[in-house]
Design brief:
Length: about 650
């Protein structure tokens, strides 16, 4: 029997039939889609079968990234696209399951999710929420947070969420810029078996953001906090049950909104100042996610997707959109290692997860904990493991196949800036260890070699990742940026006219890409540019090393005026011994080059991280160079910078 075609293969046939074009390889298909963006994105919109209204023409107006607009004559409703009953195969199909670290499980069917969403939307409308209002959430992973988000989208309101672990200052910095009308919030969260109360955080937040008119407690088990306790005499406080009224809108009654209507606000990491508010449109977000889910991930009603994420990371929004493909999504709330280190693995097995999304940090945790997934569960339904958040090393690829399950390992990378992926998986291409399988369909990614000008952009080679043509999921604008000054400086100042993503990339002759790390973390040692991942790939495989960071320190006495500093977080509390350091340097010289050998090796208790969990090379670099760290509030652990300064001496003049 002929194997069933993947969604990508089916879509490719649609394009071939429409345009009398034959695509022999994925490279042919990708190039054609980049050369004919209007045809490609229009075909994808129709192929998806989501409900939309209006005229597909023109698919794209404008001449550059700033003034472009996709599908100006199309309207849709994001919530309706996710909840449309045409996606149902039965009224009992699961839509969302939430599993807590305590073992508590809650699930809703598609029909139940639709009813809850429309009920909450009706109440929000009665409370005065209208299209264009901003609604924010300090939320755990829960059924309620999903419903609240979809209810806001149903009314054309713009949603933005953070995890409750975030501090008050960081929350005010983000949400305060938006002047939100409604706050959905939990008042506590459980992590590692400890219940953490955040009422003080809420008090500080509401004292600093006076625009909030309505506060809704997301969980019925959370205590009801009175307005005077929250220092906001004007805010009305409601329990979640009070949002579930008797009156209920229908999907057909929901208004349609322009394709580029603001749907989500995400935030930059804030390492260079107050976090930027990145506004993403409903149509562009959904179209990009549909492409990634259906064509690259082959997701459908047969699948259960679990991506390890909090409400403050773009992968939460990305996973939510999988409902538009009929996929059952599973959210995990709490610590993955409490009460057992294998907690998350049990969830994957028990709930029949077919696509598991994680990060190198979790894979490393399993390795260091001695947890061997294949010895605990068979994972019969699991068919793909995806990883993002940082570069997945070759050693991690191999460990997953040997110790987790022999399935395709898809290293995906993109970002908050485009609420999606630039390099990712492919249902039919081979996996080359250490690489992603392909560049995202229809995204015209090029390589800008070091010191080359914009006339020498290439499809293969090593250099800076740039995008040369507009794409639907780029930000519709940045908040409080009417002249696009911040937008231009963020993405287009370095290389005018093309999108500069901030990553170093290598694309092989076969077309498989590999993200090498952030551009701003690239090292210039003795005049030679070195990607930190080339060092860390070697160092992180050395016994005793938990994690590491390679950064550059200004050093007038060094050739080229700088020297390489290696920061190590070790498993042991013992100080670094000279034989260990010498052996590390020797291994780097042999497996990389003499230029990769650090001048300084320092043991530190931890590495600086932003609130979304990403390592901040910039903060560490500023610390060792005794520069001002621009924004301590962007870091979840700014106290480690003082220890790093103590362990790394100033370079002699």
């Amino acid at each position: 029997m002929m194997q069933e075609l993947t969604e990508l293969a089916k879509f490719t046939r649609v394009l071939e039939q429409q345009n009398s074009t034959s695509f022999v390889t994925y490279a042919d298909l990708h190039q054609w889609c980049c050369e004919h963006p209007g045809v490609f994105w229009s075909a994808l919109l129709c192929y998806s079968k989501i409900p939309f209204y209006g005229n597909l023409n023109p698919a794209l107006t404008g001449t550059d990234f700033i003034d472009r607009e996709f599908f100006p004559n199309i309207t849709l409703n994001y919530a309706r696209c996710l909840l449309d009953d045409s996606l149902d195969t039965s009224t009992g199909d699961l839509a969302v399951t939430v599993v807590a670290e305590t073992g508590q499980v809650e699930s809703v069917s598609r029909a139940e999710l639709r009813t809850l969403t429309l009920s909450v939307a009706s109440t929000l409308r009665d409370k005065g929420v209208v299209s264009g209002d901003r609604v924010v959430a300090i939320a755990r992973n829960s059924i309620e947070s999903i419903v609240a988000c979809l209810a806001c989208a149903a009314l054309g309101a713009t949603w933005s969420s953070v995890s409750p672990e975030l501090g008050a200052t960081a929350i005010v910095e983000r949400f305060g810029q938006l002047q939100p009308k409604v706050l959905f919030t939990n008042t506590e969260y459980t992590l590692n078996g400890v219940v953490n109360n955040i009422e003080d955080t809420l008090s500080e937040f509401l004292a600093g953001v006076s625009s909030i008119e309505q506060v809704v407690m997301l969980a019925s088990r959370d205590p009801l906090v009175e307005p005077d306790q929250l220092l906001s005499s004007d805010a009305n406080v409601l329990r979640w049950e009070e949002m579930l009224g008797d009156t209920c809108l229908t999907l057909e009654e929901l208004d349609e909104y322009p394709f580029n209507h603001p749907l989500f606000v995400l935030f930059s990491s804030g390492t260079t100042g107050v976090p930027k508010c990145i506004v993403h449109g409903a149509g562009g977000t959904l179209l990009e996610h549909l492409k990634e889910h259906r064509l690259h991930g082959d997701l459908g009603a047969k699948d259960t997707l679990l991506f390890q994420t909090s409400t403050g990371w773009m992968m939460w929004n990305w996973q939510l959109s999988a409902l538009a493909s009929g996929t059952h999504i599973v959210l995990y709330d709490g610590s993955v290692s409490c009460p057992e280190k294998s907690n998350l693995l049990k969830v994957i097995s028990d709930h029949g997860v077919t696509v598991f999304g994680t990060s190198p940090a979790y894979i490393q945790f399993l390795i260091e904990s001695g947890v061997v997934p294949v010895s605990l569960h068979e994972f019969p339904q699991l068919r793909v493991i995806q990883s993002t958040g940082s570069v997945l090393s070759e050693a991690h690829f191999s460990w997953i196949v040997e110790s987790f399950k022999k399935v395709p390992v898809q290293s995906v990378s993109g970002g908050t800036d485009m609420i999606g992926c630039l390099v990712l998986g492919h249902p039919e291409l081979p996996v080359h260890t250490g690489d992603s399988q392909c560049i995202s369909l229809g995204i015209d990614v090029r390589v800008k070699p070091d010191d080359a000008n914009l006339t020498k952009l290439a499809h293969v080679g090593t250099g800076e990742l740039v995008i040369v043509k507009p794409f639907p999921s780029q930000p519709v604008f940045l908040w409080n940026d009417p002249e696009s000054v911040k937008l231009k400086s963020s993405y287009f100042d370095k290389n005018p006219g093309v999108w500069t993503h901030g990553d170093q990339i290598r694309i092989s002759e076969s077309g498989s890409p590999r993200i090498l790390g952030r551009s701003d973390g690239t090292l210039n040692i003795r005049g030679v540019r070195i990607g930190p991942s080339e060092i860390l790939t070697v160092v992180n495989q050395i016994d005793g090393v938990h994690e590491s960071m390679a950064i550059e320190q200004v050093s007038p006495r060094e050739p080229g005026g700088s020297r390489l500093v290696l920061l190590l977080v070790m498993h042991s509390d013992e100080p670094l011994e000279r034989p260990f350091v010498l052996q590390l340097k020797k291994r780097l010289a042999l497996e990389a080059s003499r230029l990769h050998v650090p001048a300084v090796v320092a043991k530190v208790p931890a590495l600086p991280r932003t609130h979304n969990g990403k390592l901040s090379e910039k903060a560490a670099r500023d610390a060792i160079n005794r520069h001002e760290v621009v924004n301590f509030a962007a870091l979840s652990n700014p106290e480690v910078l003082a220890e790093i300064q103590q362990q790394v001496p100033e370079a002699p003049l």
